[in-house]
Amino acid sequence: MEIKTNEYRVWSEGAEIHYEGTMRLSGTEAYAPILGLMNGVLAVKPKTIVLDLTELEFLNSSGINLLARFTIEIRKQMDVGLTVKGSTRIPWQSKSLPNLKKLYSAVDLVIA
Amino acid sequence: MLKSFGRTDFHNGPGAFATRIRLADGPLSLAWHHCAATADFLGDFFALRRATSQQAYTETRHGIGYLVNELLENAVKFGEPGDIIIESALDGDLFEVKIVNAISLETARNFQALLAELTASDPGELLIARIEANAADAGAGGSGLGLLTLMNDYGARLGWIFHDAGAGAGGSIGLDTFAALDLS
User: Fold this and answer.
1) What pLDDT band is residue B137 in, cutting at 50, 70 and 90?
2) Which of B4, B6, B89, B145 gives a 20 to 30 Å CA spacing to B120?
3) How confident is the prediction for chain B on average, in pLDDT?
4) Cα–Cα distance list, A16 to A101, B104, B128 (Å)
5) Which residue from A minimizes the CA distance to B147?
6) What residues 5-34 of chain A have any CB closer than 8 A to a CB of chain B?
7) CA A36 to chain centre
C-alpha cells in the first residue's frame, strides 16, 4: 500500500509504515487517506506497529494531530504495541513527538 | 474598540534584519502553496544570518519555517479574501513576525473565545487535553492545536490584535497576529 505525491510518500511494509518528504495537508479530511492506510495496518492486529518518520522532513500541526489520533486508537487496543522512530536531524521530531508518550506512556519512542 | 490577547509587544528595532512580504489573494490551492513557499523562503532567508554552526542554521531554518507556515495556514483557512502581509525581523537570537489579514466578524467572535481559553491555561496541559477531545470527536477539526503546538513545543510567544470594523469594511475586520521566537 502506497500514497505518493511530488511532496511526500507514505507506504507500508508489513507492520512498518514509512513516511518520506514534506507533509503540509490542509486538515483532518485531507489526511484521511493517510489515516486509512495506517488503520489498514492496525486492522491486521500486528504485535507492534512501527511508524518510521526518519525521512519525514516536515509535518504540519494537522499531521501531528493525525499521529496523536492514531496513538490514541492504539492505546484502546491492549494487544497492539507502537514504536515511533524519529531522527535528531529533523527538529520538529524532538520538539513534538514526545507528546505521543504523554498520550500513551507505552509508546516506544526512539529518536536517534 | 481594539481587543488584544497574549503578547503583542515587539522588541526588534530598526537595526534588525527585516523583510516585508505581501501575498496577493488567489485560489485556495495556490494560497496554500504560497504558505509553504513563503515559510520555506523566510526560514532560508533568516537562517543564513545564523549559520555559525550547522545546528544553529538547521534550528533557525526549521523554527521560523514551522512558525510562519502554521500562522499563514490559519490566515488562509480562516481569513476573508484579500492580501496577507507578513513583516518579520531577526536581531541576534530573537525572531519576530507580524501577520496582517482580514477576518469576518463571526470568525473574530469564535476566535476570541478560543484565544481567551488558550491564553489563560498552561499550553502543555491544554494541548494534550485538546488532542484527547479531538480524538473522541471524529468530526472535530483540531481547532487551536497548531497554536498550542507553537506555544508548547516551540516556546513561541503569541499575541493578537483585533481592529475595529471600519466604515466600508463589509463585515470584516483586521487581525494582526504577533509571534516571537527565541532561537538561542
Assistant:
1) confident
2) B89
3) 92
4) 19, 44, 26
5) A61
6) 22, 24, 26-28
7) 12
Q: Please tell me the distance from the alpha carbon of residue B71 to that of residue B81, in angstroms, as a whole number.
A: 16
What topology is assigned to A2-111 in CATH? Answer: Transcription Regulator spoIIAA (3.30.750)
Q: Is A56 helix (H, G, I), strand (E, B) or coil?
A: strand
Least Cα separation, residue A24 to chain B (angstroms): 8
What mean pLDDT is predicted for residues B96-106? 96
Domain B3-182 has CATH 3.30.565.10: yes
From the list A79, A1, A93, A84, the residue with the least C-alpha distance to A39 is A1
Mean pLDDT of chain A: 96
For B175, the grid coordinates are 487581525
Length of chain A: 112
- Taking an 8 Å cut-off on Cβ atoms, the answer to whether A99 and B134 are in contact is no
Domain residue ranges of chain A, discontinuous segments joined by +? 2-111
Predicted-assembly ipTM surpassing the 0.90 threshold = yes
CA B22 to chain centre: 15
pLDDT for A111 equals 98
pLDDT in tens, B52-90: 999 999 999 999 999 999 999 999 999 999 999 999 999
